[in-house]
Design a protein that fits this description.
Elements: H1 11-39, H2 46-69, H3 77-108, H4 113-136
Helix pairs in contact: 1-2, 1-4, 2-3, 3-4
Length: about 150
């Protein structure tokens, strides 16, 4: 029996998914630990603690995704800038989803903040993988001569 997430995938795609899941879990750990440290020992409110945790987690995620998950080969300054801006823009959008989720579930509905943070992170990990795979770290398309057809304009 094959898991739906890996059914029909080649070895390289499976390794990418596993690496993303491993680094996604580690990013989640960074997010939750930094959130907890800010919210509990430091006594910072829910949303500011979530923002601080987000900044730490996004910085960690960018480095790990670029190097070990999607193996970005972008080296030109314009390409790297585009990659960084795309990555942080996407993460900002999913960060807002995280913060709104935390505000509604913890501050308004009074659910357990750590459990809600875990649920928010699962949602965010899924959305971030889709964006990273299809947009941010998309591999350039190759023509019949194995040349990149995607050119960075700018």
């Amino acid at each position: 029996m094959k898991l739906p997430i890996i059914a029909g995938k080649n070895r390289e795609e499976i390794i990418e998914i596993v690496a993303y899941l491993v680094f996604g879990v580690l990013t989640t750990v960074v997010n939750i630990v930094v959130y907890w440290l800010a919210a509990h020992p430091l006594g910072i409110k829910t949303v500011p603690s979530s923002v601080i945790a987000w900044i730490a987690a996004v910085a960690f995620a960018y480095v790990t995704n670029r190097i070990w998950v999607f193996h970005s080969e972008t080296t030109e300054t314009a390409g790297v800038i585009k990659e960084v801006v795309s990555f942080f823009s996407c993460r900002l959008a999913t960060g807002v989803i995280d913060w709104v989720f935390m505000y509604v579930t913890v501050d308004l509905l009074h659910y357990n903040d750590v459990i809600m943070k875990i649920i928010a992170n699962v949602i965010v990990i899924i959305l971030n993988y889709i964006a990273s795979k299809l947009w941010i770290f998309r591999k350039p398309e190759k023509n019949e001569n194995n040349e990149n057809t995607d050119q960075i304009k700018g």
